[in-house]
Structure formats: structure tokens, C-alpha cells
Specification:
Length: 290
């Protein structure tokens, strides 16, 4: 079992008139990710509401802030019990066996134009044996042909753009892999969180985007950017692509500071708490769904 402790600090200045915020920064409650303790502080004394999505398991914090300074501080500690499976035992499911709630992740979405990538997906991967290893081949292909380059893309960059530009950040890698999977009729979705174990050379801790692919009745984790270790991911939000799960959606005129994030792993052999490590098995933080 992995235990991760993390914190998120967001700071804004609201200009002229009230602004509405929707935050997605709290640890998701999944079958394998348990929130042990958490705290949420809002610097302004304004009403807040939290919506829990019973399917995707993430939480949305909503509030209307008055002009002036606004600070949001969130801290949590989570236990993660990963399901591990040998890759050769994980199969792709035919469309007829997919649960109804998985079907939306077969379709094109705002940043994942899978309908435009059908030809290249079939040329590169259509001949490969189906299963986890084919999806891993897609992950490696995206990783090897795409250069990690902070600042090379923006919030309008889509999977097709990344395919042509051959550069991007974690969300761009994720969008391209998702689009290629969907082009092959493999359900894939976008997840965001924090990652323990990223290379310090990449800079300060930041939000991380990765991919979950539905195989053999579970959502399995893939990291096409290759910048972190999936066993060290804290899951926060899940959706069709980045448009569904921005950490902050803002309606109003504001100035913002760079988010301050921190994450650490807790090792305690007596309580069977291990440090995250690079694992060759398939990893999932969801219960079976068949």
C-alpha cells in the first residue's frame, strides 16, 4: 500500500466585481484510494458548496468570491491500494461487453479528435495483438515521438495538433494517447492529479495529467509523458479530456499566482506502507466493472 501526503495552495486577486470559481483540487474517493484526512481553507468568508460525482468519484468546490484577495488551501493524506495484474493477462473487451457508463469514452471529444486519427491508428497499431500490450505500445509510441517541452503548447492544443507538432506537456501526451486508443475502439479517459517521484529537473511539483484505459473490466493507468511513476499518482479528477476537469474554472476578471503544490510519500514497513516504484504490471485504482 502507498500513502501520499500532499498540499495545494492557490491565490487570486478578484478585480472590480465578484467572480465565480469551480475548483477540482480535492482527492478523489475511489475504490482503491482512501482519504485518511483532509483540510480545506478558504480565505474569504463566503458560502461554498461541494458536489460529489458518484460515477467519476471526484469533487467540485463552488464559490463566489468578492473583490480582493482569495486564497484556497487544501491538504490531504491518502492510502492507495493498487490492483496489479500481469500485462499478458489483461485483454481488450469487445464493444458488446463494455458497460454502458464506459461508452462515452469511445467517442471524440474537445481535445481528443479520435475520428481524425483512425487512419494513422490503424496503420501503426491495427495489426498488433489486442490487449494491454497493444495499449502499452501506443503509450511508448506517443512518448518516443513527442518531445516534452514546457511552454510549447497552450490550452487550445488538441491531440491532432500534438501529433503534428511532436512536442507538448503531460496533458498533450495524454490527449494524443487517448485519441489513438479511441480510434481503435478502446475506451480511454483523462485523469489529473499530483505525481510523486517526478524528475526534479522538470521543475517544481505541478498538476499531472495521465491516461486511464478500460481493459478487462478495469481502468488501468498509463503515463504517456513518461515523466513520473504511475504508482505515485494521487487521483483528483477524471473526464473525457482536460476540458472536463480543469483544476480551476473561473468566471470573472482576476489575477492569479502560480499554484504551489507539494507531495511526499510515507514509508512505514511495520504498517506495510511502501514507497512508489516503477512497476511493469498493469495498475488500477478502481474496482472491477463488468
Amino acid at each position: 500500500m502507498v500513502r501520499l501526503r500532499f498540499s495545494i495552495s492557490l491565490n487570486y486577486e478578484i478585480l472590480d466585481r465578484p467572480a465565480d470559481f469551480i475548483f477540482n483540487i480535492q482527492a478523489a474517493h475511489t475504490d482503491c484510494q482512501t482519504v485518511l484526512n483532509e483540510s480545506l481553507l478558504v480565505s474569504q468568508a463566503v458560502p461554498t458548496t461541494i458536489h460529489y460525482d458518484p460515477v467519476l468519484r471526484h469533487r467540485l468546490l463552488r464559490l463566489r468570491a468578492e473583490p480582493g484577495l482569495l486564497g484556497i488551501s487544501y491538504q490531504a493524506e491518502v492510502n492507495i491500494r493498487h490492483h496489479q495484474e500481469a500485462p499478458e493477462k489483461i485483454r481488450e473487451l469487445p464493444i458488446a461487453e463494455l458497460p454502458t457508463e464506459v461508452l462515452p469514452y469511445l467517442y471524440p471529444s474537445r481535445y481528443c479528435e479520435s475520428d481524425k486519427l483512425t487512419l494513422i491508428a490503424n496503420q501503426e497499431f491495427g495489426h498488433l495483438p489486442t490487449g494491454y500490450q497493444r495499449v502499452e505500445h501506443i503509450r511508448r509510441w506517443v512518448n518516443q515521438r513527442t518531445r516534452f517541452a514546457p511552454g510549447s503548447t497552450n490550452f487550445n492544443t488538441s491531440a491532432v495538433d500534438t501529433l503534428h507538432q511532436r512536442a507538448g506537456v503531460c496533458r498533450d501526451f495524454a490527449h494524443l494517447m487517448i485519441a489513438l486508443c479511441r480510434a481503435l475502439n478502446i475506451p480511454a479517459r483523462f485523469s489529473s492529479g499530483l505525481d510523486y517521484g517526478a524528475d526534479p529537473a522538470l521543475g517544481p511539483t505541478d498538476f499531472h495529467a495521465y491516461v486511464e484505459v478500460f481493459l478487462d473490466g478495469r481502468w488501468y493507468i498509463f503515463d504517456p509523458s513518461g515523466t513520473a511513476m504511475p504508482m505515485g499518482f494521487v487521483r483528483i479528477g477524471t473526464g473525457r479530456d482536460a476540458a472536463d476537469i480543469s483544476f480551476a474554472t473561473i468566471f470573472g476578471a482576476i489575477k492569479s499566482e502560480v499554484p504551489l503544490l507539494n507531495i511526499e510519500a510515507i514509508e512505514d514497513p511495520a504498517r506495510q506502507l511502501i514507497l512508489p516504484f516503477h512497476c511493469q504490471d498493469g495498475l488500477s485504482t478502481d474496482a472491477p466493472n463488468r
